[in-house]
Design goal:
The complex is a heterodimer of chains A (72) and B (189).
Chain A: E1 7-10, E2 26-29, H1 48-54
Antiparallel strand pairs in A: 1-2
Chain B: H1 19-30, H2 35-45, H3 51-79, H4 84-89, H5 93-99, H6 124-148, H7 152-180
Helix pairs in contact in B: 1-3, 1-6, 2-3, 2-6, 3-7, 6-7
The chains are: A little secondary structure (72), B mainly alpha (189).
The complex binds fe (ii) ion.
The site of fe (ii) ion (FE2) has 7 residues of chain B, from helix 6 and helix 7.
């Protein structure tokens, strides 16, 4: 699930003398739970099958980390 | 207290993209004979040594922290832009799993820093001889680092750091001599 909503980013210092091709924007996770102190009742839910695969019942708390996303 | 200057003790330039070298440099960052061990050892011993040698320990401890910063700069520059795959290739896969792209106080094998690397024996001669040994071991570590590094710019900084260890060793030897001078001194109170 693509949710740039749950990501932060910053521009690290890049030196003209960096030995490796520089990464100009670094991204990190701001997971959904840090924006919710108490879960509201009645949130939309995945189907039971999908919830089993995703590890959460609620799309709102699914931040969808993946290798392909290439955060690191 | 300390006055911090926002620059390195000696310039650090990295010429080659070689994350494997970062792994080796960690030995001198968080290893048993590394700069962190040195700094913490002297910083702690300085309180209880004879007054004549407090200043040497204080000054060298301070300098070791500036060396630590140089090592950190090298390691950071060599790893900050590496992909997880490149880190695995460089032998830093376990480091990445535990620390991501952060630096950490651990040796080249990933063993975390421990206070058991250093000692405070409550005996000025025992402590100073440990300090002398530590400097010689740090000097030797820099030699082997220079031997495995083919980056002339990194090696320039490493050579600087290595020479500093010689001088530190000498200062600690002189400290021992100062304490030996206390023998037979007739003190009239
Ligand atoms: Fe030293």
């Amino acid at each position: 699930m693509d949710r740039p909503l749950y990501r932060g980013s910053y521009k690290p210092y890049v030196s003209p003398l960096d030995p490796c091709p520089p990464i100009r924007v670094k991204t990190f996770v701001l997971p959904p739970q840090i924006f919710t102190n108490f879960q509201q009742p009645g949130l939309p839910q995945y189907s039971p099958e999908e919830a089993l695969r995703r590890g959460t019942l609620w799309p709102l708390f699914d931040d969808g980390f993946s290798r392909e996303e290439g955060i690191s | 207290m300390w006055v911090y200057e926002k620059k390195l003790l000696y310039p650090v330039e990295v010429g080659t993209c070689n994350p494997t070298l970062a792994k080796y440099l960690m030995e001198q960052y968080g290893g048993a004979d590394g700069e962190l061990a040195a700094a913490l050892r002297y910083m702690n011993q300085r309180y209880t040594v004879p007054s004549k040698v407090i200043g040497v320990l204080n000054d060298i401890a301070t300098e070791e922290f500036s060396h630590l910063e140089m090592l950190a700069t090298m390691i950071y520059k060599l790893t900050k832009d590496a992909t997880p795959e490149q880190l695995v290739e460089a032998g830093l896969g376990a480091h990445f799993v535990n620390h991501g792209h952060d630096l950490f106080y651990e040796n080249a094998n990933g063993v975390p820093f421990t206070a058991t690397y250093i000692q405070a024996k409550g005996d000025p001669i025992a402590d100073l001889y440990e300090d002398i040994a530590a400097e010689e071991k740090a000097r030797a570590t820099y030699q082997w680092l220079i031997d495995v590094s083919d980056d002339p710019l990194i090696n320039d900084s490493l050579r600087f750091l290595r020479e500093r260890e010689n001088i530190h060793s000498l200062r600690f030897r002189e400290s021992v001599e100062l304490l030996k001078d206390e023998r037979d001194r007739k003190k009239i109170f």
